[in-house]
């Protein structure tokens, strides 16, 4: 009997997705390459390790693998983003038939996805990019899935994606058609940008509490109490991390403070610049990771510059308020980036649907995301929602006070401070951009528009007679 679905690439995520698919009764073919003395019998060994895979077919020969699938074939690629995806596509194409479907489930750049869609369309092969979030556990138990391609292609693979996806509060799959080619991977990229900020904000919360004299067990207990108001996956795992000990000391004290990144955070920041969208908190979170790379320079600077650090006098509720405020601004910036991309590329994206498929199975699932599903049913802008306006007005003064106190005490809060700065700029009716326009016109004759001319004509001034 031929398989209904194929998965290509048995890395961590690929293996988890295979087990998920097989446990749901999907007839599955699995492929992994073989490299002598490096990767041998990967697919067979994996099949034999888990009872749910007993009926799955395992391959290391591409031609046999492709021929094991019923047509139209549906093959999900779980390989490293970049050139590897193109190489795999070239290996598969000779064995594919008209109407077959290739699914890229990796963290590919959305521009590459658009390019690959056009290339495969010329060969009468369907291609769809699917953002997959949830990590190893999510892939196994139910990820959040963000498919972007043609509606007809999505319908061909919809049953397989929906059956493995996490379920939301109404027991609906956290998988829905996002939009046209490239949009699925774009939305996943923004998801990861929001994730960068959410992680950094929790790191800043811990830094603040440490400066107030709390140890990690005490901080974990505080965050545990916060779950009633700001629950989410990242908050939960951070509590577990803070409580983990190795011997008599907390493990977190032994982890080198150099943060890595896989590229999607970079892409999100670059894309926001290309589209002219102020996703400044993503950039601040990314720069915080970059600064962490320079450990030796930071150690030297610590000895060169006199510190005025002193115990921070803040209330726990102030930290919570600043955290809540910054998270709202972060989500506003992320969804704004998605909205502007939709306008630029002509994608028909539904922000409420995107928020819904992020309510479970993904890294940024949270109570706030649940609320945004409703918010986006009435508005495309979080900051103009009536309930959000009331919430922000109550949180902003505490957030501003906390940031100013941290600056005085030399505690770096790149994302919290940027949330305050962005919001103050956002609500400024008359900005300083008129000065910039005058400067640009002075040295480069770039012209400017006038407030007193409704025709929007452009002017140039000879600034020095």
Order of helices and strands: EHEHEHEHEHEHEHHHHEEHHHHHHHHHEE
Could you please say which CATH topology of the largest domain applies here?
Answer: N-(1-d-carboxylethyl)-l-norvaline Dehydrogenase, domain 2
> CATH homologous superfamily of the largest domain - what is it?
N-(1-d-carboxylethyl)-l-norvaline Dehydrogenase, domain 2
How many separate domains? 2
Strand content range: 5-15%
Radius of gyration: 25 Å
Tell me the total number of β-strands: 11
Shape: globular
**Low-pLDDT runs:** none
The average pLDDT value, as a whole number, equals 95
- Please estimate the helix content: 55-70%
Strand order of the largest sheet: 3-2-1-4-5-6-7
What is the CATH architecture annotation of the largest domain?
Orthogonal Bundle
Instruction: Please tally the helical runs, counting DSSP H or I stretches of 4 or more residues.
Output: 19
Determine the N-to-C terminus distance. Answer: 87 Å
CATH class of the largest domain, anyone?
Mainly Alpha
The class by helix and strand makeup works out as: alpha/beta
Task: Summarize the main sheet.
Answer: 7 strands, mixed
Outline the secondary-structure elements:
Blueprint: E1 5-8, H1 12-23, E2 28-31, H2 42-49, E3 57-59, H3 62-67, E4 74-77, H4 83-92, E5 101-104, H5 110-121, E6 126-133, H6 135-141, E7 144-148, H7 151-164, H8 183-211, H9 216-230, H10 233-243, E8 245-246, E9 249-250, H11 264-275, H12 280-293, H13 295-304, H14 316-345, H15 351-357, H16 367-378, H17 386-408, H18 414-426, H19 433-444, E10 448-449, E11 458-459
Parallel strand pairs: 1-2, 1-4, 2-3, 4-5, 5-6
Antiparallel strand pairs: 6-7, 8-9, 10-11
């Amino acid at each position: 009997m031929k398989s209904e679905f194929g998965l290509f690439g048995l890395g961590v995520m690929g293996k988890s997705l295979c087990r998920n698919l097989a446990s749901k009764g999907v007839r599955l073919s699995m492929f992994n390459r073989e490299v002598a003395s490096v990767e041998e019998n990967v697919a067979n060994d994996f099949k034999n390790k888990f009872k749910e895979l007993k009926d799955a077919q395992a391959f290391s020969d591409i031609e046999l693998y492709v021929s094991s699938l019923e047509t139209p074939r549906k093959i999900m690629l779980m390989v490293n983003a970049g050139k590897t995806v193109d190489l795999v596509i070239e290996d598969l194409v000779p064995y594919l038939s008209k109407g077959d479907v290739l699914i890229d489930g990796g963290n590919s750049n959305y521009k590459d996805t658009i390019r690959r869609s056009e290339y495969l369309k010329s060969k009468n092969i369907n291609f769809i990019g699917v953002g997959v979030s949830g990590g190893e556990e999510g892939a196994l138990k139910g990820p959040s899935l963000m498919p972007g391609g043609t509606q007809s292609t999505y319908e061909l693979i919809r049953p397989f994606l929906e059956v493995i996806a996490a379920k939301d509060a109404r027991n609906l799959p956290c998988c829905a058609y996002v939009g046209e080619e490239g949009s699925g991977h774009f939305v996943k990229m923004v998801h990861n940008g929001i994730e960068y900020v959410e992680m950094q904000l929790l790191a800043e919360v811990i830094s603040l509490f440490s400066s107030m004299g709390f140890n990690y067990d005490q901080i974990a207990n505080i965050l545990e109490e916060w779950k009633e108001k700001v629950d989410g996956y990242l908050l939960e795992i951070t509590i577990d991390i803070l409580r983990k000990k190795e011997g008599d000391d907390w493990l977190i004290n032994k982890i080198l403070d150099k943060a890595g990144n896989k590229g999607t955070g970079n892409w999100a920041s670059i894309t926001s610049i290309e589209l002219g969208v102020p996703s400044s908190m993503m950039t601040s979170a990314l720069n915080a990771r970059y600064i962490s790379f320079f450990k030796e320079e930071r150690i030297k600077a610590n000895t060169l510059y006199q510190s005025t650090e002193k115990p921070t006098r803040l209330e726990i509720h102030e930290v919570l308020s600043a955290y809540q405020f910054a998270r709202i601004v972060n989500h506003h910036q992320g969804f704004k980036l998605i909205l502007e991309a939709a306008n630029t590329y002509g994608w028909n994206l539904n922000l409420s649907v995107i928020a819904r498929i992020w309510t479970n199975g993904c890294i940024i699932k949270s109570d706030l995301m649940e609320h945004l599903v409703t918010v986006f049913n009435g508005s495309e802008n979080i900051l103009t929602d009536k309930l959000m306006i009331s919430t922000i007005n109550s949180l902003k003064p505490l957030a501003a006070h906390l940031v100013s106190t941290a600056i005085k005490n030399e505690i770096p809060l790149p994302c919290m401070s940027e949330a305050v700065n962005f919001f103050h700029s956002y609500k400024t009716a008359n900005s300083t951009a008129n000065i910039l326009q005058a400067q640009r016109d002075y040295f480069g004759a770039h012209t400017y528009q006038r407030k007193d001319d409704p025709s929007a004509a452009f002017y140039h001034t000879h600034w020095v007679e």
